[in-house]
Each structure stands twice: as C-alpha cells, then as structure tokens.
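Give me the fold.
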Amino acid sequence: MSETAVLLCGHGSRDPEAIDEFEEAASALRSRIGEYDFATGYLEFARPTIGEALGALTARGARRILAIPGMLFAASHVKNDLPWEMNSFMAAHPGIDVRLGRDLAIDAKLLTASAERIAAVAPGDRSETLLVVVGRGSNDPDANSNIAKIARMLWEGMGFGWAEAAFSGVAHPRVDAGLERAVRLGFRRIVVFPYFLFTGILVKRIYAQTDLVAARFPEIEFVKAGYLRDHPEVIAAFHDRIAEFDGGDPNMNCQLCKYRTRIVGYEDAVGTPQQGHHHHVRGGGDHHDHDHDHGHHQHHDHD
C-alpha cells in the first residue's frame, strides 16, 4: 500500500439521502485511484469527521494525505474550515503531511454534466424556454458570481431564450423571488436547475418552492432538472483534482477572494483569521438546522 492516501471531504447533512449520495460518488472515485488508500470525512452531521478520517488513514500507514474538497466552490468551507482541519491535524501529528486540493470550481466537465441533466428534461429547441440556475448562496461574492457565469454559459451553450440565477439562501435573489421574476419575463416554460452536487434539505426546498410558484402560475410549465450527483463527469473532475498534485500543490484562484483582496462591500473581511466553526456539530447534530448557510460576522457561510 502506498504511503499516499486520498481523503474526499464532505460537508455533511442531516438528510441521510445526502450522505448516501456522497458515499456513492466517493465509491465511484475510489475505483479510479488505484493503489492509494481512500477515505471520506465530514465537517458536520456525519461520521467519520475530517479528523477521524485523517486519523484512520494515518493508522493504516498513510504519511501523505491528499485532501479533496467535495464541494463546488471555494467559499468559507474550502478557504477556512478545511485548512483549519488540516493544519490542526498536522500540528497534532508531526510527520504527517496533509495537502488540500482545489474546489471543483467552474469546470468544463461539470458544465457537460449540467447540460446533460438539463437536456434530460428539456430536449429539443429551447429558444422559448427560460433557464433558472439555483446555487447554494454564500457570503462570498466570488462564489456567488460563479453561479451567474454558469447560468450564462449554459444559456448560450444550450440555446435557451434566457437565463436567470437564484440562490437557496444568504444571497439574492432567493428561489421564490427569482422564479417570480422569471415569470414576469413572459416565457411559458421555465427549467429550474439546482447547481448542487447532492440532495439534502436545500435541494428539496428548491423543488418544493418551484412547486409552490408553479401552482400560482398554471399557464406556465415549470420543469425541475436533476442536480449533478454522481454523473461520470463529476467523478472525472474529482479525479482531476487528485491528479493536479502531480504537478505540485494546486492553488485556488484567489484573485477575487474577499479574505485576500479588498472587494467592494467586503473590505473588513481582508485578513480574517482562518478558523473552523463546526465544533458544536462535528460528527453529529444539535438543535440547529445547519444544512443552511451561516450569516455570522466571523463564522462564515456554507459553500
């Protein structure tokens, strides 16, 4: 067994279906990485925790661990929580080298997967159809802007008549407001695409909100596209993130990171200490619903 191992880092969810889907994708990735040991770990609401997974890999002989964020964009989880977990583990385990890979970001493979999910429910001519791409939403404007870019690329690439971006929380417009805006644009068919990796409270809420708006506007056809899940191109993108380590340490695109650069409206975020904020729900749950985004001043959002 190689002394190098791979850890796929998930957020975790109160929804067991979300954990099952994450593990299904992890199993598909595991089958592609050859001789490396492999584990999954979660920031909250599921076990093993990130620390437990790192410990298990170390106990099995790993001395170099490649940690891959199982997350779409680099918001606070990838910029703060995961680095804090890795650095804390290395401080407590001298001699163990944990390297953190890039988020999936905007990737041609994910655009292909998105297009196939959308085409499955919207085949043929889409020139009279409006596409609504729904992201998670965060307090990180760079992460939010990615949803607008994805919406634009799918709009042009798939021949939709128009596209809008909306968010499940924190950022605006929210799903209901975004759908009502879409209705006012005059299209008679609206495709709602949750740009999410896996199911969970938020995806199910997006679908439920779509149904509520659809009931108010029976003259318009609302179509719900599937999310990314374990599409082969998603697995291939995760595999690419592992392969990037062969060329050295992969770096995130930090050009517009609010923690490094003064961004309009977020000037006070520059230099915010890197710290985790999942202590109270690590490995399990409490009375809070943490399958949504934080709006704390210091405790940042879910990406």
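Strands lie at 4-10, 37-42, 64-69, 97-100, 130-135, 162-167, 189-194, 221-224.
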